[in-house]
Amino acid sequence: MSAVMIKLIFIVVVFGVSLFVAMYSTYAERKIAAFLQDRLGPNRAGPFGILQPFADGIKLFFKEEFIPLKADRWLFLMGPGFFMITALMTSAVIPFGADFIHDGKTIALQATDINVGLLYIFGVVSLGVYGILIGGWASNNKFSLLGAIRAASQNISYELAMGMSIVALVMMTSTLSLREIVDQQAGWHWNVFYQPLGFLIFIICAFAETNRAPFDLPECETELVGGYHTEFSSMKLGFYLFAEYINMFISSAVLATLFFGGYQFPWVSSMDPGLTKTILSVVVMFGKIFFFIFLFMWVRWTLPRFRYDQLMNLGWKILIPLAVVNIVLTGAVILYKMM
Amino acid sequence: MGVIKLTDRIKVMERKPMSFMERIYLPAILKGMGITMSHFFKKKATISYPEEQRPMSEVFRGLHVLRRDEKGAERCTACGLCALACPAEAITMTAAERKRGEENLYREEKYASVYEINMLRCIFCGLCEEACPKAAIFLQNDKMAPASYEREDFIYGKDRLVEPFLLKQS
Predict the structure, then answer these.
(1) By the CB < 8 Å criterion, does B46 face chain A?
(2) Which residues of chain A have pLDDT under 50?
């Protein structure tokens, strides 16, 4: 098999896995929410409700496809698709496991290892807000527009702090390639131990970027009906909801990659390269990803939503100065070590 | 003139500014997450209804039943007192005369050829049970009118109200 074929297969697999994980995240979300609230959650479709995501999907497909009369038709159709594409594009640079050698060829479990991988992720993630903005604006509904504006301002505010928390990390790793960042963290040298403050800022911003509680202001139903997706129905709504879960999956993957050693695990990274190591490393990576997905849900069902001004205060007056302090501290430590 | 106190349980709340640990919120957030996590493993309050059922009270007023006597004949004589007593007007009936040879079917000389209760109207007050002079209608404490998709399914005729004959024999 040529290298291109292998890459193509890998891309399809990653695509499928992202969709599958997102699909079962909806199930996990409902189940975890139920368990945290002393309920049982969905348990009717199949054993333990395991077929619930399929039932939801079929239901969404059969719902009426409604486009408001005054909506901008093409943008209205484009919005969900755009959101979905940007959500899926991010997984291209995430290394999911250690290399393995097959017929003398090294096969990397990563769609592409570009040397600006981190920048690529930030670029694509900030494109994601267009999906919300376009959808909300095209709906021609005041609640949708408000939700979209909130999403845009929230993403801009939190991207700054997020980027700055990453600057400190990059100062330490001196590379933007995600694979190299992961390889530097072999053993227990996880970045979270060197950059605890950066990690804290990053994870708070990740919550805001994925529009999850306690920062789910763009779709807060108490104020804005449904937020930016008020007017969407059928599978277009499904795309928005689904893309949110894909975003969560990717955010968890990025968190694991940047701060928790990605696919590295002390006993696994010291193994000889081979199929066992690759499989174990993939298992480790997904274990970390699932932990963060669980954390996202755990926080959602614990904390109440922020008020809009509190959100802006936190972003601009606390997180950004903290990120700057973090950069200065990191710089000072690096300088001290060089001397 | 002193201040009139309505109660001696007044608690003066202090509005002191939040301390640093309170202002960074993280300890409170972690505490909250600990509380939710403790609920994750707690016993669930849900009762999965069709599979498991709550125990009913002895005096619960559920689905009606038209009783038979010890020989298996229907006790109802279609006097209409239950329909009269019914505040929701859920009961309708048509009376008929017992023919020769039907003595084993109907206890009295007059019986209800049609007896219908609309379970959507019924408020399960039990006044029909109290009004009945023949001890024919009772509200069971272990059965409820099951849910259905059609309105017609909630109009219970004699086929579903009269208790089965075989059950009484054994």
Answers:
(1) yes
(2) none
